[in-house]
């Protein structure tokens, strides 16, 4: 063998040495920081091993391959010890080191090394092959999935015998909020044959004066031969259900303003005058507008439209509209927004709305109001922050500023005479030292109100003294639970915490235990925390605390940064109080459940849910002369992330998702899944990650990680569940029995909405709105799409 000094120059080897030296510096420095914080010492060891390897390579010693082989095998053992055989958790621990190990095996490296390089190369080869084998084995199964099948059961006889309903008449199918259809034309056998039947584009696009939170979250309604939907600027469209052709549209002429916190429409409501109907005052119902569409708007108005023509109903309010800002002392446009459709009953229209979050304690009230459904006359109010919640506004009394609001969709049981309103917290959300006992009474609670009077029948508080924006986000689902010969009217309440609270909807007593458990203490100056919080026995919440080992990244380098960030934050488990240090909030502000809710099949007594889990960071910013905690230029007052001022509190707050430097979640996937619940046993039967990073990564990678989502599932009697809310642009159909994917189709924009289904001309259609979500980062669009199985 020739002397080493006589060998040709090795530019590739020298470049490799330089790269490894840089890697060793980063790993050692970052690893030392992590170790000082009490974290893993692996990165210090890896940094030293890389430094030694690069030094030996520079000296052209074959020992370099032995040292690197030891590093690779040591990393493999450490990785399995930390996370087991979970591919996506193992990947960032080896996606740099393993390819680099392969690189070192090539002749243009080994040819330059000292005698003994062949044996050293074999040792390194063993390390590389072992790593690849472990990764291959970890791909063979999903360690976090629950593989199961729903038990075969006979549908409840009285429900199964009822004729299928061809329409979808309310946001959640009916006022019960089940997101269920008893149509069975689309089945697990023919779902694969679904094709695009028609497509409609609204023409409503984001303008330069619109806020970041520009989104179409609508679930259309279908009544008779028409489909009713709305777009972000609350323009209503009536489409022919069989063809998608436009019949009419109504534009309320919403002001475009960046200070609006949202520019969205979740849907409209429908009412049909029954024979012999009377107004709330007992007068005969008017003949005008026998079928009505109700539209709330972001600028605080409520319209009643003729469902046949789209023209305002002149006898309702002021020539077809009500100003929902009335009764409030603060009437700033955009501070009170009607983003969700109202509740419709035979005589009373019940309207709640969203109040601007985390901006100030001087904001409009979140009072819930009942109006005469024909005239628009105010009948009652429920102002949760008032010692007398039913006190009506007058010349001498306004609703309570910042009173807890019900921004999401409510449910109704007209037989019991109750409406179920999910409440948020008093404003601001993240510091609550100034809240009064009256304001705290119904914070983040479900309140059951009498439809006729607005008086409280019962309430259930999901979070005590809420400091985390853990409001009640979802429309609850009502279902009669059959237990032997007994039938219990139940209400299922999904919460941001991942809990699903199950109560008797007559009186609010618990059907599934939700015991109070101690939670972390130590609130910021001037505030306090509740000593305990309720934890439902039916829940998707994480059963263990997050650990440093669960920190993630696309490479070992951003994973290291995430581990350092994690160790620097305050985190003692769920309900760790916000802090100046910065608190890790998990589940985060998005919540494990959001406004999409769950889908319930009352015939089979099952539910389909799509929980997600993304940690947030909540960092309190002390207010001072040089630090007013005002919104920054990138995040104006109309956003819900970035610096929020919380005027009236001694702190502002900086809110954001816990992300790596590459803007991917610092927590290992899955971040979103689809699951089935057996409501007879309250068990999760199956759960699988859903969604890819195809539309959220720099390259269109179809990796199925399980992604965040906004929008809920829909389930049918045909045994098929549909979902569109994932961060990748897809509509998907799943087998209800075991969660198997039956069909999917690419959407032209983000599908952050909840799909619905109906029948027209003997054909079952599935419709979804693909409008995207500005602050969620999905592609914006203006599409309404209908799918059907071609006959």
Structure description:
It is built from 10 helices and 40 strands. α3 runs parallel beside α7. The protein starts with 10 loop residues before the first helix and ends with a strand. It is globular.
| Structure class | alpha+beta
- Total number of β-strand segments? 40
Gap between N and C termini, in Å?
76 Å
| General form | globular
Strand content: 15-25%
**How is the main sheet built?**
5 strands, mixed
The largest sheet has its strands arranged as 1-34-35-36-37
Mean pLDDT: 92
- With helices defined by DSSP (H or I, 4 residues minimum), what is the helix count? 10
Rg computed from alpha carbons, rounded to a whole number of angstroms: 29 Å
Helical coverage, percent range: 10-25%
Low-confidence stretches: 1-8
Summarize the helices and strands and which ones pair or pack:
Layout: H1 11-36, H2 42-58, H3 63-83, H4 87-94, H5 97-105, H6 107-110, H7 117-139, H8 157-160, E1 180-181, E2 194-201, E3 221-223, E4 226-230, E5 236-240, E6 246-250, E7 269-272, E8 291-296, E9 301-306, E10 321-323, E11 336-337, E12 343-344, E13 348-351, E14 354-355, E15 368-372, E16 378-382, E17 411-413, E18 418-422, H9 437-440, E19 445-450, E20 456-461, E21 477-483, E22 486-494, E23 500-504, E24 516-518, E25 532-534, H10 556-568, E26 583-585, E27 599-601, E28 606-609, E29 616-622, E30 642-644, E31 651-657, E32 673-678, E33 683-689, E34 714-716, E35 720-723, E36 730-735, E37 741-746, E38 756-760, E39 763-770, E40 783-789
Parallel strand pairs: 1-34
Antiparallel strand pairs: 2-40, 3-4, 4-5, 5-6, 7-8, 8-9, 9-10, 11-14, 12-13, 13-15, 15-16, 17-18, 18-19, 19-20, 21-22, 22-23, 24-25, 26-29, 27-28, 28-32, 29-31, 30-31, 32-33, 34-35, 35-36, 36-37, 38-39, 39-40
Helix pairs in contact: 1-2, 1-10, 2-3, 3-4, 3-5, 3-7, 4-7, 5-7
């Amino acid at each position: 063998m020739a002397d080493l000094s006589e060998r040709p120059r090795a530019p590739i080897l020298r470049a490799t040495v330089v790269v490894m030296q840089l890697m060793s510096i980063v790993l050692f420095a970052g690893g030392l920081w992590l170790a000082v914080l009490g974290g893993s010492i692996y990165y210090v060891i890896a940094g030293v091993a890389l430094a030694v390897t690069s030094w030996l390579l520079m000296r052209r010693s074959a020992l370099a391959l032995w040292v690197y082989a030891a590093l690779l095998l040591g990393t493999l053992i450490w990785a399995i010890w930390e996370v087991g055989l979970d591919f996506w958790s193992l990947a960032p621990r080896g996606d740099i080191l393993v390819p680099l190990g392969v690189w070192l095996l090539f002749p243009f490296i080994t040819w330059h090394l000292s005698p003994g390089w062949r044996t050293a190369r074999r040792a390194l080869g063993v390390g590389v092959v072992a790593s690849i084998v472990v990764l291959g084995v970890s791909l063979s199964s999903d360690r976090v999935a629950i593989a199961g099948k729903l038990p075969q059961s006979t549908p409840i006889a009285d429900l199964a015998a009822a004729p299928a309903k061809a329409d979808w008449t309310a946001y959640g199918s009916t006022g019960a909020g089940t997101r269920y259809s008893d149509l069975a034309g689309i089945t697990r056998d023919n779902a694969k044959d679904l094709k695009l039947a028609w497509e409609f584009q609204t023409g409503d696009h984001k303008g330069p004066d619109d806020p970041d939170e520009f989104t179409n979250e609508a679930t259309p309604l279908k009544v008779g031969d028409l489909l009713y939907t709305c777009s972000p600027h609350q323009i209503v469209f009536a489409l022919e259900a069989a063809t998608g052709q436009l019949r009419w549209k109504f534009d309320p002429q919403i002001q475009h303003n960046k200070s609006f916190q949202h520019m969205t429409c979740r849907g409209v409501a429908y009412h049909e005058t029954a024979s012999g109907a009377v107004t709330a005052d007992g007068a005969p119902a008017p003949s005008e507008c026998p079928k009505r569409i109700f539209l709330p708007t972001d600028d605080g108005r409520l319209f009643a439209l003729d469902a046949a023509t789209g023209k305002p109903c002149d006898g309702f309010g002021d020539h077809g509209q009500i100003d929902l800002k009335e009764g409030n002392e603060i009437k700033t446009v955009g501070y009170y927004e009607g983003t969700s459709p109202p509740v419709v009953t035979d005589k009373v229209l019940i309207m709640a709305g969203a109040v601007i979050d985390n901006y100030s304690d001087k904001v409009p009230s979140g009072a819930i109001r009942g109006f005469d459904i024909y005239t628009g006359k105010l009948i009652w109010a429920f102002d949760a922050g008032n010692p007398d919640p039913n006190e009506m506004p007058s010349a001498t009394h306004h609703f309570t500023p910042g009173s807890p609001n019900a921004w999401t969709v409510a449910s109704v049981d007209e037989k019991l005479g109750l409406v179920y309103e999910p409440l948020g917290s008093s404003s601001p959300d993240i510091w609550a030292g100034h809240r009064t006992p009256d304001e705290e009474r119904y914070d983040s609670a479900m309140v059951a109100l009498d439809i006729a009077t607005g008086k409280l029948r019962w309430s259930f508080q999901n979070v005590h003294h809420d400091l985390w924006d853990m409001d009640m986000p979802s429309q609850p689902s009502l279902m009669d639970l059959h237990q032997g010969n007994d039938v219990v009217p139940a209400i299922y309440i999904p919460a941001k915490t991942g809990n699903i609270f199950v109560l008797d909807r007559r009186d609010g007593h618990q059907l599934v235990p939700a015991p109070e458990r101690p939670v972390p203490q130590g609130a910021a100056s001037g505030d306090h925390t509740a000593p305990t919080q309720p934890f439902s026995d039916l829940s998707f919440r994480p059963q263990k605390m997050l650990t440093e080992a669960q920190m993630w990244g696309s490479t070992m380098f951003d994973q290291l940064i995430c581990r350092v960030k994690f160790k620097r934050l305050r985190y003692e488990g769920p309900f760790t109080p916000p802090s100046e240090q910065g608190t890790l909030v998990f589940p985060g502000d998005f919540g494990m459940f959001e406004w999409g809710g769950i889908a319930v099949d009352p015939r089979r007594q099952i539910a389909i849910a799509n929980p997600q889990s993304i940690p947030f960071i909540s960092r309190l910013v002390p207010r001072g002369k040089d630090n007013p905690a005002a919104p920054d230029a990138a995040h104006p007052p109309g956003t819900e992330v970035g610096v929020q001022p919380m005027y009236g509190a001694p702190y502002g707050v900086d809110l954001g998702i816990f992300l790596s430097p590459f803007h991917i979640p610092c927590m290992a996937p899955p971040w979103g899944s689809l699951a089935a619940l057996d409501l007879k046993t309250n068990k999760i039967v199956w759960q699988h990650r859903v969604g890819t990073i195809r539309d959220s990564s720099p390259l269109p990678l179809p990796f199925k990680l399980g992604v965040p989502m906004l929008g809920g599932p829909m389930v049918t009697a045909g045994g098929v569940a549909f979902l569109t809310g994932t961060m990748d642009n897809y509509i998907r159909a799943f087998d209800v029995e075991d969660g198997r994917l039956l069909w999917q189709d690419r959407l032209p924009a983000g599908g952050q909405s909840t799909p619905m289904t109906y029948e027209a001309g003997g054909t079952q259609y599935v419709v979804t709105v693909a409008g995207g979500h500005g602050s969620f980062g999905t592609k914006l669009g203006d599409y309404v799409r209908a799918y059907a199985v071609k006959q």
